[in-house]
Amino acid sequence: VERIPAVLKTQERPWNAAVDMILRTTGTHGYIILEGYGRVNTILDFLRERLTHMAVRTDAPLFSVMPKDCVRSVDMRDAVVIASLSGQIEETINRAEKLHRLGLTPLFITGLGKTPAQELITAKTVIGVNIPGRRSSSPEQISWHKNQFIWKRGQEVTPEEEAAEINLLAVLEALTACIMEKRGIQEKDLVIDWGSLVRESGSGSKDK
Questions:
Q1: What is the pTM of this model?
Q2: SS3 per-residue string spanning the chain
Q3: Radius of gyration of the CA atoms of the chain, in A
Q4: What share of the chain has pLDDT > 70, as a percent?
Q5: Residue range 78-123, pLDDT digits in tens
Q6: pLDDT digit string (tens) for 49-90?
Q7: For residue 30, which of 19, 25, 140, 146 is within the disulfide window of CB 3.0 to 4.6 Å?
């Protein structure tokens, strides 16, 4: 995690492009669409909740984050954030390529290594942000849907995989912080004053 600031500093151009891509959705009334599979999809919930909370708690223009269970066609107003730590998930690669053909460039967060995702970054098919602590890399594409229920004896989550997941969470936190800074939103603006939500004793109608 300590390497995250240094790693992002070397990727200033794609990082700024990613932040601007998300901010632009408020002016176009587009949706922010988050895509990942398995545990990565769960980690993306952090960004989903952060952006939603930011919209509810401030007077800044609202971010419209696509609900997880919603199925809808993507259009040019939207911002798509794809994450694959291995960079090998076939569904994410196909999705990025299809979006590129439609004229939309998604953000792709992935680990370093010789992977299909890195090929997309090199070809500028996606805005690529790399994170340290990657999983083992390979040029092979793997279908998540075909392999999600396949378990191999001795297969366990490695320390490298756990580090990659923690680093993904740290990158999403950094992304949120940059969005807040550009919007002029401070942490105190997001604090819920629970005391103001509690009705004072004796106020309102009484039960009879």
A1: 0.83
A2: CCCHHHHHHCCHHHHHHHHHHHHHHHHHCCEEEEECCCHHHHHHHHHHHHHHHHHHHCCCCCCEECCCCCCCCCCCCCEEEEEECCCCEHHHHHHHHHHHHCCCCCEEEEECCCCHHHHHHHCCCCEEEEECCCCCCCCCCECHHHHCCCCCCCCCCCHHHHHHHHHHHHHHHHHHHHHHHHHCCCHHHHCCCHHHHCCCCCCCCCCC
A3: 19
A4: 78
A5: 999 999 999 999 999 999 999 999 999 999 999 888 899 999 999 9
A6: 888 877 666 665 667 888 766 666 888 999 999 999 999 999
A7: 25
pLDDT of residue 196: 59
